[in-house]
Each structure stands twice: as structure tokens, then as C-alpha cells.
Amino acid sequence: MKVLHIEAGRHLYGGALQVVFLLRGLRAAGVDSVLACPPGSAIAPAAAAHATVHELAMGGDLDLGLVGRLRRLIRAERPDLVHLHSRRGSDVLGALAARLEGVPVVLSRRVDNPEPRAWVALKYRLHDRIVTISEGIRRVLRAEGVPEAKLVCVPSAVDTTAYAPIAADHPDRAAVRAELGLAPDTLLLVMAAQFIARKGHRTLLAALPGVLARHPRARVLLLGRGPLHEAIVAEARAAGLHGALPDGGPVLFPGFRDDLPRLLPACDLMVHPAEMEGLGVALLQAAACGLPIVAGRAGGIPEIVRPGLNGELIEPGDAAALAQHLTNLLGDPALRARYGAAGRQLVLDEFSVDAMVDGNLAVYRACVGAAPG
């Protein structure tokens, strides 16, 4: 079996990282993979060991020329199936190219934002199967009228070798704090998310004064980039949460970090008060590292964060509940340890790379009616 994968993202995190995991697993299973991605994207070198990589211009939803470029690639590579991994034009234009060339097409759906029903009826007619990364996303699509027979849930995965807990006396714990200008005994919270409205940064800022009143040693890392970054920095500064203390303030903005496997296990707790979320790869990574999690009850998040087992959930926007859960967990090291161990086991049991690869491979076989080879 040969599969053409199309990934329009330029950075190696989230969905693009899942594609690399999938390509690696498919290669081990005997499947030939071809990847189409934008020139200069980070996924190209990461995927080169597992797939034939073609860098194509991908200009988004209005880049109608992408249809022709993909049709030429399909004719050259002659794949048995096309798997679309991202929106940004490829979900529709890539599907059109595959349809025009008579090749089955699968779409991975990674977000839970609703779409107009009329558009849903047209768009998803192009795809033979839609792979959702959470049951929450599958519910949204089902409610919008996508036929149940087209929907398959295959959860995202985390590399539990790269993301793993460290001991309390591990040198990285003190080293991370030293690099950030923090004291060794700092209670370190982390949020790793794009700076966009639905991720809930403002809910966290609203909750922090109450948390800091009880735990003045607590500090928060807001990792990532995005259009609201400067606005959130300004709001944190106006609230006296950024830049007011000698160590840089209770809220730090280190930007995008590519060393999460080292950084996350050196933290004490992850917070993610999102209002919408397909699943949340950063939550899987944090759980794999043994961190308890406090997050929003949105999208696929409850499939990862299970109250009383490995974390707590709040209703989106409930800053008071967020403050209460954070305060309780920061004050209870034993509870943090119990939640962290349970989260690690949950990831091992339900979100492994092998399970994700097997799930997608089963979808391919159903679409083409043939085993790999």
C-alpha cells in the first residue's frame, strides 16, 4: 500500500508532529508513504527518514492552483489513498485533487469548532472517511449531519519515551528554574498553547491573584506564540502579574519552546482552561510527564483529564473554580503525585503511538480493501 499524506502546517508541533509519528509507524508496518508539505516547513526534514517528501507551494483556501499541483503529484506517485492532515486549503483542495484522480481520500479532523451545516453537507461529501482525534470532535460532526459511517475516532498519541517523569531530585528541575531566574523551591505551573482567545489565557490571569495569595512562591510559564501574545503580556503587566518581581514576575512568557520533553517534567502542574479544544496534545505530553492537570471541560479534554483520577475540570471561563483547584493542588504534594502517576498510566494505556498507527491503518484498509504491501 502507498499513501500520500498532505500536511500544510509549517511548524513541528500539534498535528504535524502526529503526522511524523504516523509516518514512522507506517514504515515499520510496511506501508510506503509520500508526504506533501510547504517549502521550508519543519516537518520535511523530520519526515525524510520515513517517507518520500515533496515540498509544494500551499497558499491556503484560495490557492486553487494547489489542486493542479497535487493532481500532478498523485499521477507521479500513484498512491492507493490520500490522507489529508490539516485544514488550510488541503481539506477541500486536496480532496478535490484526489477525487479528480479517482483515489480514495481520508481527512483527519483535529479541531472541534462548528461549521455551517450547508458547508458541512458539501465539504465532507468529498471524503471517504473522517478520522477524528477525539470523541468530542466526532460528536460535533455527527450533530452537524456527517454520516456516522464516515466517522472514525483515532485519538492522538504521545511519545512516552521522550515525554516521561523525572525524580524530584533530578538536576533538570533545579536547572530549569535557574534558567528562568527562579528559586529552586518555586512551585511551577505551565500552560503550553497558542495565544488565541479560545485557549483561555484570560481565565487563568483572572484566577491567579487568588492562587498567589495562598501560594506566593508559585510561578506560571505561558509557553507559545500567537496573535494575542502581546495583548496577554500587556494584560498581565497591567494586573501586576508580569515584570513586577525581581525574578521577572509571577507570570513568565518564554515564547515557543522546542525542549518540552525536558521542560514539562520539571514543572509541578499543567493548567489549560480552554473554551474549545479538539483533544490537546500538550495535555497528553504533560500527563505522560506525570503532571496533574487542571483544564476546561471542552471538546476532547475530558477524554484526557478525568476529575479525581489525574486532574480537575472547570466549566469554560470559571476563574473562581480554576483558582480553587489550583490552590488545592499546589497545597497537596501527595495529591499531585497521585494524579501525576495516574495520568502517566492513562497515556500508556490509551494514547500510545502504536494504537494511533493501528487505528489509521485500519481506516486505510477499509477504504482501499487491501492489506499493506
From TrEMBL:
Gene3D superfamilies: Glycogen Phosphorylase B
Keyword entries, A-Z: Transferase
Pfam families given in the database record: Glyco_transf_4, Glycos_transf_1
InterPro entries with a match to the protein in the record: Glyco_trans_1 (IPR001296), Glyco_trans_4-like_N (IPR028098), Glycosyltransferase_grp1 (IPR050194)
GO MF entry, a single one: hexosyltransferase activity
Domain Glycosyltransferase subfamily 4-like N-terminal: 14-161
UniProt domain Glycosyl transferase family: residue ranges: 173-345
Protein name from the UniProt record: Glycosyltransferase
Protein's organism: Aquariibacter albus
